[in-house]
Amino acid sequence: MENGTAVSGPGMSGSRVLVAGASGVLGGLAARELHLRGAVVALAGRDTDRLADVSVGLGGAPVRGLDAYDVEDCAALAAWAGRELGGLDGVLVTVGVAGFGRVEEVSDAVVEHLFAVNMLCPAAVLRGAIPRVTDGGFLAAVTGAVVDRPMLGTADYAAAKTALSCWLGVLAREGRARRLRVFDFRLPHLETGFSDRPVAGRAPALPKGGDPAVAVHALVDQLEGPASTAR
Ligand SMILES: NC(=O)c1ccc[n+]([C@@H]2O[C@H](COP(=O)([O-])OP(=O)(O)OC[C@H]3O[C@@H](n4cnc5c(N)ncnc54)[C@H](OP(=O)(O)O)[C@@H]3O)[C@@H](O)[C@H]2O)c1
Prior knowledge:
Bound molecules: NADP nicotinamide-adenine-dinucleotide phosphate
CATH architecture: 3-Layer(aba) Sandwich
CATH topology: Rossmann fold
Number of domains: 1
Strand content: 5-15%
CATH class: Alpha Beta
Shape: globular
Number of helices: 6
Number of strands: 6
Largest sheet: 6 strands, parallel
Distance between the termini: 24 Å
CATH superfamily: NAD(P)-binding Rossmann-like Domain
Strand order of the largest sheet: 3-2-1-4-5-6
Helix content: 25-40%
Radius of gyration: 17 Å
């Protein structure tokens, strides 16, 4: 385990947090919100330009590339963040990609991609973080409301998110002895453009989504709050 003091009770000030997926809309917003609340943040993401922009906005937060298919490297992110920040109190994973189509229309390659990005990569990042994060720290990922209400045309995307959700539930129970706070954020549809950049297919008609900034504010409230939110 890295040196340092765990997040204990309300307050994010001084917490050392890895955001994996910080090049995306929700990851970037979460990194900024954590920074505003006094956390020190390490950023991992795929798009190097957007990652650099987020880093500059946070006064030069450390950055590292992230390829969902390189699970060993995903699992190594927490060790890197711990070295950069002098310890690690929490990890938030916002990596994900949508994919749409009726079950018989979706190719095996697309199914594999959806599981690699939405399940295997987040699980690898968090698995690598378990021995690194301080007792009482948090391990968090964004799944989605699709876990509770899968829509037609989302079978494989919903299945990948549901697999991650199940995995997080077991992790929460396994982590109790160390007071690890595990979060499964089942966010509703938000106006980030996420459903407009699927790996395959087209999104079903969706109502106007929620405000991403409001959702991220509430998400960080939960990360910051007392140790009672693991599902
Ligand atoms: N927006 C919504 O309505 C909504 C609702 C519920 C749940 N969610 C979940 O929230 C998370 C963030 O979504 P968002 O709205 O912020 O969308 P986003 O801007 O598209 O963010 C997705 C993130 O995943 C990364 N990513 C995708 N494929 C990758 C790959 N092969 N390797 C490495 N990184 C990859 C993207 O990297 P690059 O940007 O660098 O390519 C980006 O950082 C996702 O897990 C999504 O499923 C979103």
